[in-house]
Design brief:
heterotrimer; A mainly alpha (182); B mainly alpha (549); C mainly alpha (405); A: 182 residues; mainly alpha; 7 helices; B: mainly alpha; two-stranded antiparallel sheet; two-stranded antiparallel ribbon; 22 helices
Chain lengths: 182, 549, 405
């Protein structure tokens, strides 16, 4: 494990934590950006330049759309976000325990990043109600899932990364349909 | 004859269904003719397939997906197919019905025939289940508000049979009747088979669907439903002998089933003697005969099985006869009641005599069952005497009655009494040979007599003079001056009020008001479907915990 | 080339129908042609043979192929025999889009791609106009995707043997969550249009997802196959009980249908969990019944449920019999196979399942009545669905052969 991959994994977790803690579009954009950066760095560290590029492009598109539209506020750690803070912290600890202690093998940073982002993004989708936060978390999920394919015993090819990147980029473009029911 | 010909009876009946539907949709008013032609043609073809060969013929047409498509025409399937097809053909010929009812009725008939012609248990389960479904639909099409067999119980019966077939395939490698290893038919498996049989035919001591159906305003669908469904449960019990190499896994199973049989017969007799209308009495004829048939079939002896099968054949004739009877006094009604009750020298008398003889010869506990059977028969006869003077009933449409045909059928059972031996030899003995080892040398029946273990019943010699005397007495007496009036029952069964009250209280049971909040279904539904993350995470933790055990 | 065409053609058809909304007949015609060509490509595709035209190894297994054809049949039935006044173009659009997604999932070379695609489909589905919020619609599918992803991680990581079991839990729970079964029931609004409702997951997208996840999961966690099967069976029994009772007792008709789908899926989960060939065969038949019988009947019953029409005609009883799994319909054959498979595994399980099967009848009678009195084109459609159900029930071998069983 090099310092680069460790920092990249930390960035990925930090991005997921930002998505969990932020309600505003700027905070969410930073979160998605950090997640994309982190996983891109992890992918490039493996020499998969094209795959990393897909993730970076998707994450960047999502972040740009978040910044381009809607109210531009950070919304970081609004009142009542203590449970979310605990979630982010505990998520990191559990992911670290899983990646570094419970499991063995050379891809510990990637495992840490994947578990952390999967868990935190899923948690955000479960507890979020606003469209922007849910879509941002979904984008992070897509990036993490695509990156996780690198842990397969055989080369997954570029397809997961391309699809993950497209989903991450497209998530923020989706119209958030307001419910038409009572 | 090529084995593919075995499919002909079912194919003809299915084609008849298609033709009836076509006639109905096209507006051609010839569907009753088509029904009659198709039903009787199928019977003729079946007999034509059997007579030249008179031994087992099989057709294996490949895999269906859950088991083989295996048809078999042997003595058992011939007897049961005729017991189903003949009364159905009579009813389809004599009763006016809409083309929709006719189509469904004939489809049900095809399914029932396929059930008894199939060579394996799974195909029987599929076809029998289809027959049950179609019978229920037929009854609902005619009148959704009148009583019909509990669909759930019928579904349970055929599901249970399919499970038996599945168990036999798993344990024995096959569910084909002739190929199942005897060791696969264990006591629990047989109990499941027996339960399926009892539920399929409604063989219960209390008032089951076979008697409830006769209370419907119209008897078109009821007659066909009883004719197609009622024999199927008995079929399973008979095939049980084949699977078990001539006997059930243990003696006590035979005793229990025989006891159930006598209770069924007694229950029918008790209800019959307390009936307030003649229709109510006649509604207990089939269950009563069914009870005696069950006793005979369950004994596990060749004579018992022959008697049981013959009793079933008699029940089949009455299944075709009773729906054609109008609800009024008259010669037809008198003859039907007398014939059904088992007055000498009718066949109903003969088969009951042979059946009771079989129970005494079987000995042990079964002899006691024979004594109970005799007492039940006496009650049946007393009930018949009482029923002659009862009011007719609510009456059903004239277009579905044929009193002369009903009279003719009942008269045939009386006149054919001296030919008891011939009936047993022609119809029941071939079936016996398929499922049980018969001692070589001595035949149970021949044209003139029935040979039991301890004696010989010279049916022809004994019954013919009785028949002639009865005919002479009837001609001399002239038309019977019957006045319908209400008569008191001979006795009421103790506990019937209690059971009726208990059943009603169970049916209307409700959670006490102070506890209803504990079981608020709406709140439970809201909690389960609310999409709560906590519930989801808790479920995940529970699953993770479960796999670590 | 066939797997690629199987994905591209319905996707193109869906896009065409969107652009041609103003000319409904042309939209229907072109969309139908695209769908038919996709079906032809699937029929021609050799099961299991990979195609690499786009740089990705795509192949469709025999079981997936069979279910894709069933889904195509269901879509054809529903669009061709839609009740008058129903938006056939919209039905075709969303059907083709969903079909393209299903084909992509079926053809995907790895479970990673499957779950990423599932996330994409979930996002598109959540974005549809409906009565529930985007967040409500996305919750369960996103959780599902995360759970399956976690399962993949656990399965591939080197560590203690217990990880394989947790992987099995993740995969099973993820499958249940994406379908919307108990305990991960998707929020359901009875008035919501079907394309945007959880029924789309249960009855259209779900069958392919179920087959793909289950078949790939077995290869992923061979050491935890028993645990995987046990979890599926446990959740299956839970859904059998809940689905059948709730379908019977709930107040709203559409909710009753929703729970009936869940009950059927309970049987499917049990069948998959049994892990013998009879179980797989039972699962395939039940899924065929779900696609070709239950889904079309549900769609055809929506109008009469809105108008609170209940009838007791022969066609309602036949529909009830089919939904209850009575002979001679496909459900009965599936039940025979399921009982046989359960008996091979553990006979008390067969007893429990057998008792549970009796609970199908009361809600099925209710659902049959809710179909109302179909007439015209709709009656023909109901007749075709009944005939197909009976044909499969009497002779399921061709379907099983098609599914490679």
């Amino acid at each position: 494990m090099t310092a680069v991959t460790a920092i990249a994994a930390f960035f990925a977790w930090a991005g997921a934590a930002a998505i969990v803690l932020a309600d505003g579009r700027r905070g969410l954009a930073v979160g998605v950006g950090l997640v994309a950066l982190g996983f891109t760095a992890l992918t490039w560290a493996d020499g998969a330049w094209l795959k990393g590029a897909f993730l970076l492009a998707g994450g960047a598109l999502c972040a740009i759309e978040l910044l381009r539209r809607g109210a531009q506020d950070w919304g970081l750690m609004p009142p009542g976000s203590t449970p979310r803070l605990i979630l982010a912290s505990v998520g990191a600890i559990l992911a670290l325990w899983f990646a570094a202690s419970l499991t063995t093998g050379p891809d510990a940073p990637l495992r840490f990043a994947c578990v952390a982002v999967l868990g935190l993004a899923a948690g955000r989708v479960l507890q979020g109600n606003a469209g922007a936060s849910v879509l941002s978390a979904s984008a992070a999920l897509a990036i993490a899932l695509a990156s996780a394919s690198a842990l397969a015993p055989s080369d997954p090819g570029f397809a997961p990364y391309l699809i993950g990147g497209v989903i991450a980029g497209g998530a923020s473009l989706l119209p958030v349909a307001e419910p038409s029911g009572a | 004859m090529p084995s593919i010909a075995l499919i002909a009876p079912v194919a003809i009946i299915l084609a008849t269904a298609g033709a009836v539907a076509l006639c109905g949709v096209a507006g051609w008013k010839i569907d009753r003719v088509v029904l009659a032609v198709g039903a009787w043609a199928a019977i003729l073809v079946l007999i034509a397939l059997w007579v030249p060969v008179r031994s087992t013929q099989e057709l294996n047409a490949g895999q269906l997906g859950f088991g083989p498509f295996d048809l078999r025409l042997d003595g058992v399937s011939l007897l049961f197919a005729l017991a189903i097809m003949v009364p159905s053909a009579v009813l389809l010929t004599m009763q006016q019905r809409s083309w929709q009812e006719g189509t469904v009725a004939v489809l049900g008939l095809a399914a029932a025939v396929l059930a008894v012609e199939s060579g394996g248990m799974l195909l029987t389960a599929l076809a029998g289940g289809a027959a049950a479904t179609l019978a229920v639909i037929l009854l609902d099409v005619e009148d959704p508000r009148s009583p019909r067999p509990p669909w759930g119980m019928l579904l349970a019966a055929w599901l249970a049979l399919s499970w038996v077939g599945a168990i036999l395939q798993v344990r024995g490698g096959t569910a084909v009747y002739s190929a199942v290893p005897v060791s696969a038919l264990t006591v629990p498996v047989f109990m499941l088979l027996a339960a399926a049989a009892l539920m399929a035919s409604g063989l219960f001591p209390w008032r089951g669907w076979a008697s409830q159906l006769w209370g419907r305003p119209s008897l078109r669908a009821a007659g066909v439903a009883v004719a197609t469904l009622y024999p199927l449960g008995f079929y399973l019990l008979v095939r049980g002998y084949e699977v078990g190499d001539g006997h059930y896994p243990q003696f006590w199973l035979q005793a229990v089933l025989a006891a159930i049989g006598v209770l069924v017969a007694f229950g029918a007799a008790a209800r019959a003697q307390a009936a307030v209308t003649r229709r109510g009495y006649l509604g207990e004829v089939i269950p009563g005969l069914g009870g005696f048939a069950l006793v005979g079939i369950s004994l596990g002896t060749p004579l018992g099985l022959v008697a049981g099968l013959a009793t079933l054949a008699v029940a089949a004739v009455f299944a075709g006869c009773i729906p054609l009877l109008p609800d009024r006094a008259g010669t037809a009604s008198l003859v039907v009641i007398a014939a059904a009750a088992g007055l000498p020298p009718g066949i109903a008398f003969g088969v009951r005599v042979v059946g009771l003889e079989a129970t005494f010869e079987a000995g042990n506990l079964l002899g006691l069952i024979g004594v109970a059977g005799a007492a039940t028969w006496i009650i049946t006869i007393i009930g018949a005497a009482r029923a002659i003077g009862l009011p007719g009933g609510r009456g059903h449409p004239v277009s579905e009655t044929a009193p002369r045909t009903a009279l003719g059928l009942a008269a045939v059972t009386v006149i054919a009494g001296p030919m008891l031996g011939l009936l047993l030899a022609a119809v029941a003995l071939p079936a016996l040979g398929d499922v049980m080892q018969v001692p070589a040398g001595v035949s149970i029946a021949n044209a003139t007599s029935v040979v039991t273990v301890s004696t010989v019943l010279p049916a022809f010699a004994l019954f013919t003079p009785v028949l002639l005397l009865a005919l002479a007495a009837y001609i001399a007496a002239g038309p019977p001056p019957v006045k319908a009036l209400a008569r008191p029952a001979l006795f009421t069964l103790p506990g019937t009020q209690f059971f009726a009250r208990a059943r009603e209280s169970v049916r209307t049971a409700a959670i006490p008001a102070q506890y209803r909040s504990l079981l608020d279904l709406r709140a439970l539904e809201a909690a389960a479907t609310g999409g709560g993350p906590l519930l989801w995470l808790a479920a995940l933790v529970a699953l993770a915990f479960a796999v670590t055990r | 080339m066939e797997p690629e065409l199987a994905i591209a053609l319905p996707a193109a058809g869906a896009i065409l129908t969107v652009f041609l909304k103003a000319s409904p007949r042309l939209a229907l015609l072109l969309g139908s042609i695209a769908g038919a060509l996709a079906v032809a490509a699937i029929v021609v595709a050799a099961p299991g043979v990979a195609s690499d035209q786009l740089g990705v190894m795509l192949s469709i297994s025999a079981m997936s192929r069979a279910l894709l054809l069933a889904a195509a049949g269901a879509l054809g039935l529903v669009v061709a025999f839609a009740p008058s006044g129903a938006g056939r173009v919209a039905l075709l659009t969303w059907g083709l889009a969903g079909f393209a997604g299903m084909a992509a999932i079926a053809a995907a070379p790895s479970l990673d791609i499957v779950i990423v695609l599932t996330l994409g489909i979930a996002l598109l589905h959540a974005a549809l106009a409906g009565r529930r919020s985007l967040a409500a619609r996305l919750r369960a599918p996103a959780l599902a995707v995360a759970l399956v992803g976690a399962g993949l991680l656990f399965a591939r990581a080197e560590g203690p043997p217990m990880l394989a079991r947790f992987a099995a839990v993740g995969l099973a729970a993820g499958l249940v969550a994406v379908l919307g079964l108990l305990p991960y029931i998707h929020e359901f609004d009875p008035e919501e249009v079907t394309a945007a409702s959880p029924i789309a997951w249960l009855a259209f997208l779900g069958p392919i997802l179920g087959v793909v996840i289950v078949t790939r999961a077995r290869d992923l966690v061979p050491t935890a196959a028993a645990a995987f099967g046990a979890v599926l069976i446990g959740l299956g029994l839970l859904n059998i009980l809940w689905g059948s009772l709730a379908s019977w007792l709930t107040e709203k008709g559409t909710s009753a249908w929703h729970y009936s789908f869940m009950a059927d899926w309970g049987l499917v989960l049990c069948a998959f969990g049994i892990q013998v060939s009879d179980g797989q065969a039972a699962a395939v038949l039940i899924l065929f019944g779900l696609l070709l019988n239950r889904l079309p009947l549900y769609l055809w019953s929506r109008r009469s449920m809105r108008e609170s029409i209940q009838t007791d005609r022969p066609i309602n009883l036949l529909a009830a019999a089919m939904l209850a799994g009575s002979a001679p319909f496909a459900g009965f054959a599936a039940r025979i196979l399921l009982l046989r498979g359960a008996t091979q595994l553990y006979w008390p399980l067969a007893l429990v399942i057998g008792v549970g099967l009796l609970l199908w009848l009361p809600p099925s009678l209710r659902l049959g009545r809710s179909l109302g009195a179909p007439h015209g084109r709709q009656a023909v459609g109901v007749g075709i669905a009944l005939a197909a159900g009976a044909a499969i029930g009497l002779y399921p071998q061709p379907i099983l052969s098609l599914a490679g069983l």
